[in-house]
TrEMBL record:
Signal peptide: none
Name recorded for this polypeptide: Protein phosphatase 1 regulatory subunit 16A
SUPFAM superfamilies (UniProt xref): Ankyrin repeat (SSF48403)
Species of origin: Cherax quadricarinatus
SMART domains tied to this protein: ANK
Length: 469
């Protein structure tokens, strides 16, 4: 029946009594079923020839793998693994199906994946192993399964933490401690493991200097040794590189200079070391139009950057496709980050017509940013929670786009993990205390004292020269 005919009939049906409407509806339904049965016999869709132009939607194997892992479907996962798919395939964050199963607490999937060859010590971009994921989410049975399968108890993630460091479940913590004792892993061994990456990198840099190698040779993603040292918090190596002529303005493929890495990883000591040289511009932009200020998450370090900018007259340097429209007006964020309500009027009274005039008139910047409030002095009480997270050491990982990576770290935050101060090693406690004294010491390493993690780079120079540290 045509639509117009149906509309006309509806006007007539509205005038009918209810019982007649019901009878008419039943009659029409029988007619529909009869017509469908006739169509099904003569025009079966299964008998039609498929068009040659029709394409089926096909997803990449890693997408299928991660989707099934996220859904927790044991049957689908088993069928997919039987088809020969590699269980160690990663998504764009380096996450594997085993990581996902550990986050979700699916012991059945974990067992299945391990049975089909999943790497128990595989890492994502933040160097988290499946054991890190299971430990931080408090899945005790999965932790025991992974350890029995050969999981590395001393694996260090991008924050310098081993699995036992980031579990809030006492039973899980005690189990891992006991397993470490069974393997003869003492506190001294743990400390040496934490120190080894720094020592290896320092030795490689010294060898490079002695043999006349190029300290600015591009590594992965065109980053340099200086990018890596800053991201790791190895500030003694940062000073060594600067003293030996390493480029302070070398850019990686995303347009990041060392100053961007220092700001992103909240490495105040490196910021100070870099800005001693006038060639370093705190207003320079990445390939995505981001300044060091934009990349920094720590309010106090952001205020330090603002203060340094306020006494500099350099214009913001553009790079790549960046344009003035891409730039974040730094002065618009001051109230939200570093200044309290008592100073609100000070900013309201300032009239800045444009970003260009702001940058071109140093005195305005001085009036805007240099605001002294003695009540703010000593107001910070450093703790584990407000200590900036240490940088990752994987060069490829640290030099991604400026957007924060959406990786397994989210599991840590969702688990509402709070590390107990009683579980910290003596050295870690000392490092936390040293943060309050960092601005008064001459030792660059003590300013941003983070756990040392090995860079994911191979030594570029092989030499027989022996250098004693």
């Amino acid at each position: 029946m045509e639509h117009s005919e149906l509309l006309q009939e509806m006007q007539q049906i509205e005038k009918l009594p209810i019982n007649e409407r019901v009878k008419l509806a039943q009659k029409r339904r029988k007619q529909q079923l009869t017509a469908y049965a006739k169509w099904a016999k003569t025009d079966n869709i299964n008998n039609r020839q498929r068009s040659k132009n029709i394409r089926e939607v096909a997803f990449a194997p890693e997408v299928q793998l991660m989707d099934i892992a996220a859904r927790g479907s044991h049957e689908d996962m088993r069928n997919l693994l039987k088809s020969g798919i590699d269980p160690n395939m990663r998504n764009h964050d380096g996450l594997t199906a085993l990581h996902q199963a550990c986050i979700d607490g699916s012991l059945e999937l974990v067992t299945l994946l391990l049975k089909h060859g999943a790497d128990v010590n595989i890492t994502d971009q933040d160097l988290w192993t499946p054991l890190h994921a299971a430990a931080t989410c408090g899945h005790f049975k999965i932790v025991t399964t992974l350890i029995k399968a050969g999981a590395n108890l001393t694996a260090i993630n991008c924050d310098g933490e081993m699995p036992h460091d980031i579990t809030d479940d006492e039973v899980t913590f005690q189990y891992m401690e006991n397993e470490m004792m069974k393997r003869g892993i003492t506190q001294d061994i743990i400390e040496r493991i934490r120190e080894e990456p720094h020592d290896v990198m320092l030795r490689d840099i010294k060898n490079t200097v002695l043999t006349g190698g190029d300290l600015n040779q591009p590594l992965e993603r065109k980053s340099t040794f200086l990018h890596a040292a800053i991201a790791n918090g190895f500030n003694d190596i940062v000073k060594l590189l600067i003293d030996n002529g390493a480029s302070l303005t070398a850019r990686d493929e995303d347009g990041w200079e060392p100053i961007h890495a220092a700001s992103y990883w909240c490495n105040e000591a490196a910021i100070d070391l870099l800005t001693h040289d006038k060639r370093v511009n705190l207003q320079t932009c990445t390939g995505y139009g981001e300044t060091p200020y934009d990349l920094c998450d720590d309010p106090e370090i952001k205020s330090v950057i603002l203060h340094k900018i306020s006494i500099m007259s350099d214009m913001c340097e553009l790079y790549g496709e960046a344009s003035p429209e891409n730039l974040t007006p730094i002065f618009e964020e001051v109230e939200r980050t570093t200044i309290d309500d008592s100073n609100e009027k000070h900013f309201q009274d300032i009239n800045i017509n444009s970003l260009e005039s702001f940058y071109s008139e140093p005195q305005k910047k001085l009036d805007l940013f240099i605001v002294t409030d003695e009540s703010l002095d000593g107001s910070r009480n450093p703790s584990i929670d407000d200590t900036p997270s240490s940088p990752i050491v994987n060069i490829e990982a640290i030099e991604l786009s400026s957007d924060r990576r959406n990786s397994i770290k989210e599991a840590k935050h969702k688990a509402e993990l709070i590390r107990s101060i009683d579980r910290l090693s003596t050295k870690e406690k000392k490092n936390i205390k040293s943060d309050t004294k960092s601005k008064q010491t001459d030792d660059p390493r003590s300013v941003c004292n983070k756990e040392n993690i090995t860079p994911n780079i191979n030594p570029l120079f092989i030499t027989s020269t022996t250098v004693e540290d």
